[in-house]
Amino acid sequence: MTPGPEYYNRIYQLIEARSNVPAHLTDVMLGLAWSSVQISCHESGRLSTGMCFSPLHPPRNLPWSGHLTEKSLADILGWLHGWDNSELVIALAAANAAIALDNSLLTQAEKITCHKPCDIPANLAVFAHFAPQLQDAKVAIIGRYPGIEYFDKQFSYTCIERNPKGSDLPDTAANYILPAADWVFITASSLANKSLPQLLWLSRNATVVLMGPSMPWLAEWGDFGVDYLAGVSVEDHAQLHKIIAQGGGTRVFEQAAPYRVVQL
């Protein structure tokens, strides 16, 4: 039976509950590829930065531009329950900044380095990590990752993309491909377009890797059928700010926010 609205809403309610700490926004970047939010905790003054994949088609004028650093974190988190993609991106990045604070799961997560000796781009580190387990498996990848063709000879995969190119399948193919898959790699940017709950439901018989900078580090993902988390930790806010401000994309993984992985 297809899940109802309670299932879909529960994910966003969980993210809001885990990120609602006394803090305010100190820096907001809405870049071409990635967006970031830095928050400052009221009691300790600690700073933390979170990321999210940027909106694909933002409007030319945003009503709140220039005023976000005047807002508290609580003001922004309500946007998680709306449908404005730009607001969802900001809210998710802010939530990720809060969730990363004193996060034991993030501390446990192993930094992925296996891609470096093979000169595999850092944005593909997750696939390098799992590649030995994917031979002869039916693999589905939600989202097109630049350079994924590197693995064409190592394992077979089907890419499902909202804006398909080449051999990609459109997002409607998920209804047919995911229930029969052995492994499913889901971009956490699907949180921002509200497609993630349905993708998780369709992948409930597969081994699921939820991945990308947009992913909140929450152990409760296991309750939704996720087996592995492969997200990032922002290690250099200044460099991340510079890359995003200059329109950068995959370079963030090399210089500011490396991938980490943990099994739930």
- The shape, in one word, is globular
CATH fold-level name of the largest domain: Rossmann fold
Q: Please state the structural category.
A: alpha/beta
- Put simply, the count of helices is 9
Uncertain parts: none
Q: What is the CATH top level name of the largest domain?
A: Alpha Beta
| Strand line-up across the major sheet | 4-11-10-9-8-5-6-7
Percent helix range: 25-40%
Helix and strand pattern? HEEEHHHEHEEEHEHEEHHE
Number of domains: 2
Q: Mean pLDDT, rounded to whole units? A: 95
Beta-strand level of the residues, as a percent range?
15-25%
Polypeptide structure, described:
- There is one protein chain.
- The protein is α/β, with parallel strands linked by helices.
- It has 2 domains: 5-101, Enolase-like, domain 1 (2-Layer Sandwich), CATH 3.30.390; 106-263, Rossmann fold, CATH 3.40.50.
- 27% of the residues lie in helices and 21% in strands.
- The protein has helices at 5-19, 73-77, 85-99, 104-108, 125-130, 174-177, 196-202, 237-245, 251-255, and strands at 23-30, 34-41, 47-53, 110-111, 139-142, 157-161, 169-170, 183-187, 207-211, 228-232, 259-263.
- It has an 8-stranded mixed beta sheet.
- It is globular.
- The relative contact order is 0.17.
